[in-house]
Amino acid sequence: MPLIKRRELPLRVADIMVKEVVTAKEHDKIRDVAIRMYEKKIGSVVVVDDEGKPIGIVTERDMVYVVARALPPDTPVWMVMTENPVVINENALVTEAMEKMRVQNIRHLPVVNAEGKLVGMISFRDIVDFTAVLMSLTK
Prior knowledge:
- The protein is α/β, with parallel strands linked by helices.
- It has one domain: CBS-domain, CATH 3.10.580.10.
- 35% of the residues lie in helices and 20% in strands.
- It contains five helices and seven strands; from the N terminus they run αβαββαββαββα.
- It has a four-stranded mixed beta sheet. The chain has a three-stranded mixed beta sheet with strand order 5-6-7.
- A hairpin with a 5-residue loop joins β2 (44-48) and β3 (54-59).
- The longest helix has 14 residues, at 124-137.
- The chain is globular and about 50 Å long.
- The model has no long low-confidence stretch (mean pLDDT 91).
């Protein structure tokens, strides 16, 4: 018997995602992307095409690679981004987002609509913060 009973909350990704996503284009310089991440205090930037569809993601881990390899600051972002990022639909359950993050060992999921266009971002931190709010309601 499991320690915790599983219950599906009808909580959708769109309910807790961040809607103002910082994006970049594939030819942006990695230094400019790093500055945006620093200024916005975020851990990832989604690289989008001209239609607004995610084609890559640059994370803090990628920035560690940039520093470790001493890449020039004018290196285009496409050279260090993770191509074809794992995404999730805005109508998916938050539990599905959690499972994707766990299985893929990632902390950021770009959120897309039915047309595949970027509409938000959900992070492990967003899920933890929301869980903390839920737990505080049970006191």
